[in-house]
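Predict structure. Chain length: 77.
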Amino acid sequence: MRAELQAVADHIQRAWESGRICSLAGRGLRARVVRAGRLFDAGVLPVAEAERIAVEAENVALAFGPLPLPPVEASDD
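Prediction complete.
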C-alpha cells in the first residue's frame, strides 16, 4: 500500500484508539482505506482515485465523535 494511504489508515486508527472519534465508524472507514490500497496495488484503482477515497474516509471518520460506553451491569456473584 502506498505510504500516503497507510498514513491515512494509521491516522484513523490512532483517532479511534485515543477516543477522539467513534470506534465503529473509525474501524469501518479504516477498512475502506485499506481496501482502496489493496485495489490500487492490484491495479484496479488509479492512485488518484485511491487517494480520493482515503481522504473522503478520513474526513467522514473525523466527523463522528465517540459514543459513550454502555453501563456495566453488576454481576450477581
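Summary: The mean pLDDT is 94.
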